[in-house]
Queue: 2 jobs
Job 1
Amino acid sequence: MGHIKDIAKIDGKDFSEFTHNYLNTATPVILKGAISEWPAIKNWNPDYLTEKIGNHTVRYKKSETNVHPIPQKMEDTRPTESLFSEYLKTILSEDSAEAAKYCLSGDEAYFSNEGVTNPNFVSLLSDFSIPSFMDKNKIERIGFWVTSKNVSSWLHYDGGALCNINAQVRGKKTVYLFDPDESKNLYMFLAARGEAHHFSQVNYLNPDLDVFPKYKDANYFLGEIEAGDMLYIPKYWIHTFFHTGDLNINVNFWWKNNVFPLNSLSARDNFVEHCRNAYNLGGRTRENMINFKKLLSKNSTIQNVMEKVEKSFFLPQK
Ligand SMILES: O=C(O)CCC(=O)C(=O)O
Ligand SMILES: [Fe+2]
């Protein structure tokens, strides 16, 4: 394996150290105890959550394994729905292998999206607060995550050039973070193929080193977040979490900030954006994405040129 370092940890109440040394330098860090005063830390147990939001319908991922999503099957995987109370019962059931196939994530469940509050979860809003270093107007989405033990996300970076603060309200997660330039060892899916290009092709829990030999050279940062901690993931950092508490609950804040690091992934995202703009399919709507994919599949010349640029400049795997 490549080099493994610990993710830095600081006193989570010291936002001035965080802002100067981490936020503004795009350096990941764990802010220990940053949210220990949130009412959510005491309140968010199964009974309380069932009472407050149990009757609301929630969407979540249902996968064949404990890893979510499986990017190779993304197109056939539609989120599933049920009442939150049913979801909670299922993931707290006796069969833990089955429970780990469920993942209610910030992709589907959110407190607010582009400034619009989700009415289903309003009753939980007074249990947490937006960190004071964050400009409220630049928050794109506040996500809600509820899972059982042994759930894992697939190795990816967050789209939309967004920074991320992920707050652990209950349970524990082991966090793996890769610098964006480690993408040279991570075999990201190609945007030129219309694939899930924020995702690595490698299953980090069981990497196939015959197919992905450079993965063994990938350097990463490792850390653990427990109830009360916040993690800062700078934009474009590639990450995955392994969930180790019996019940894991997180609130995360995706927001725009002005720090704009130039790296291989930011350059690639810009390149892809410009290619889409050239065909009047810019803007990150689902429709534009689908139409761009259709265009690429019909025009092998554009596809091959894009693929060459992606591979030679942004994702070289020598
Ligand atoms: O909790 C996880 O497994 C993943 C979290 C994540 O990907 C995020 O906060 O963007
Ligand atoms: Fe993420």
Job 2
Amino acid sequence: MKNNAEKLKNLFDQFTACTRCPLGTQGRTQVVFGAGNPQARVMFIGEGPGKSEDLQGKPFVGRSGKLLTTMIESIGLKREDVWISNIVKCRPPNNRTPLPYESSTCSSLLLFKEIEIIKPRIICTLGSCAAQILLKKPKMALATVRGALQIEQGLHILPTYHPAYLLRNPAAKQVVLKDFEIIKKALLDATL
Ligand code: SF4
């Protein structure tokens, strides 16, 4: 019987040279897989790798990643406690938003399998793209669900802003810190 770390490794090993969507041939340096604790109770999901992530091969390591780490620590967790991933695993050219085909292809090949293996108690989506994919509402405005715990196919999902948005709009940081308190409470809720 394989443990979660082995299952994730086996999964990722199949996609190190993936070209199953156009992002595989549009200048990525490497595929950036999810990372963190394979037994995590909390999973954070962003949109896709940026320049720093593409170069280092790890999710959320640039300025947005540093901010995310600070916010994770604000609820008493460490980055090593959680799992951090993205909807698409290859950097879109010029950091553009992934196209619907790219998001649906990559998330069904990788992200939803990561979720199946890790079985987190709560998933925090960062930004519109991740919320739309996880809640299966492609045109949904983030404002309609942000900060409210959603249940979709048995998954507890908390949509909030992406850290990159907070870097552009620092005033929204307080809002996200409050959203993160919902994660903290959810982890204490034995019924989840
Ligand atoms: S984004 Fe995902 S599906 Fe597309 S090439 Fe990269 S790993 Fe493959």
